[in-house]
């Protein structure tokens, strides 16, 4: 990313980025030099300078012949980023409240890779409702993602979110270590019903994981969740989960 792209990513317009970088290079100069060196038409320079001064990135040097302008130290950019982050942090609780209180009739999307996995875990925590899993194979301890899991499990515990697992039979046969991480509320599906997919239900979410095997998911490209957000569908899956739970023998 070059300087222009960086400055624009921080919220500066294209002209503002050109002018700010020009001032960093040229020092204290007038509008004519700024226009010439930056390639921004003189009539547009004034508006951009005013906005840069409002952002605290440029200051004006008043002189009798011609006012000049100078860039503030680039570390001011860090202050701008911090201020934006603080504003987001302050607004986030209310924004999340709006997001989760808005009725959703039906929504389908896909999460992929490790970042998708992280978002899947965030959804579970944010929803804050009981978690049900069908066909689980201990993929939480996959080498590529298990570093996220201790903090995730601690959040589940802190928020008192109960977990209910119907594990694949291979988890029982191998005495997989995931059994030590999920509490005592789990059972095992009969071996004849083994699959390479799993379904998680929480709140109004139904998450379908593809290509899972004992203790792992396939390649990075195969870490894939189909996410369906619909309360009626989630309620139906919880009913089916309860039926399977009732049919499965005790451990």
Chain-wise SSE layout:
Elements: H1 3-9, H2 14-26, H3 31-38, H4 42-54, E1 58-61, E2 68-71, H5 75-101, E3 107-112, H6 113-127, E4 131-136, H7 149-158, E5 163-167, H8 169-173, E6 186-188, E7 198-202, E8 205-209, E9 212-213, E10 216-217, E11 224-229, H9 231-247
Parallel strand pairs: 4-5, 5-6
Antiparallel strand pairs: 1-2, 3-11, 4-7, 7-8, 8-11, 9-10
Helix pairs in contact: 1-2, 2-3, 2-4
Q: Assign a percent range to the helix content.
A: 40-55%
Q: Which sheet architecture does the biggest sheet show?
A: 7 strands, mixed
Q: Which value, in Å, is the CA radius of gyration? A: 27 Å
CATH H-level superfamily of the largest domain: Endonuclease Chain A
Q: Span from first to last CA?
A: 56 Å
Residue fraction in strands: 15-25%
- Assign an overall shape: elongated
The CATH architecture of the largest domain comes to 2-Layer Sandwich
Outline the low-pLDDT stretches: none
Q: Looking across the biggest beta sheet, what order are the strands in?
A: 3-11-8-7-4-5-6
- Structural class per helix/strand content? alpha+beta
**Count of strand segments:** 11
CATH class category of the largest domain: Alpha Beta
What's the total helix number?
9
């Amino acid at each position: 990313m070059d300087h222009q792209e960086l400055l624009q990513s921080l919220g500066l317009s294209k002209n503002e980025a050109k002018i700010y970088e020009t001032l960093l290079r040229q020092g204290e100069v007038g509008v004519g030099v700024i226009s010439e060196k930056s390639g921004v038409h003189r009539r547009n320079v004034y508006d951009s300078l005013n906005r840069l001064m409002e952002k605290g990135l440029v200051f004006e040097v008043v002189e009798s012949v011609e006012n000049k302008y100078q860039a503030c130290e680039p570390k001011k950019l860090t202050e701008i980023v911090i201020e934006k982050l603080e504003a987001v942090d302050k607004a986030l609780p209310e924004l999340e409240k709006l997001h989760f209180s808005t009725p959703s009739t039906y929504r389908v999307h896909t999460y992929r890779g490790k970042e998708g996995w992280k978002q899947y875990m965030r959804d579970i925590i944010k929803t804050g409702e009981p978690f049900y899993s069908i066909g689980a194979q201990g993929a939480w301890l996959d080498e590529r993602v298990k570093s996220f899991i201790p903090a995730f499990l601690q959040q589940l515990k802190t928020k008192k979110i109960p977990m209910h697992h119907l594990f694949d039979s291979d988890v029982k046969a191998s005495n997989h270590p995931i059994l030590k991480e999920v509490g005592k509320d789990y059972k095992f599906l009969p071996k004849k019903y083994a699959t390479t997919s799993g379904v998680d239900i929480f709140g109004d979410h139904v998450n379908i994981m593809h290509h899972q095997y004992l203790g792992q998911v396939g390649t990075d490209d195969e870490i894939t969740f189909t996410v369906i957000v619909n309360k009626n569908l989630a309620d139906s899956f919880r009913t089916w989960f309860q039926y399977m739970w009732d049919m499965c023998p005790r451990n």
